[in-house]
Amino acid sequence: MSESGTGDARVDAVLGRLDELAAIPVPAHVEVFEDVHARLQELLDGNDPA
Q1: What digits encode the pLDDT tens for the residues 28-38?
Q2: CA distance 27 to 48
Q3: Separation of alpha carbons 26 and 12, rounded Å
Q4: For residues 47 and 1, what is the distance between their CA atoms, to the nearest angstrom?
């Protein structure tokens, strides 16, 4: 993710999970990607629980 972010703090918070990828084994990346995808979809659908 870029230093400037996306301009939407909620999206930036979700994308922040991608920073975890370097520290976890590759097989565990799928879980992170699925979580990020689901959370971004919730934001797009307007179902943000926050």
Answers
A1: 999 999 999 99
A2: 28
A3: 22
A4: 23
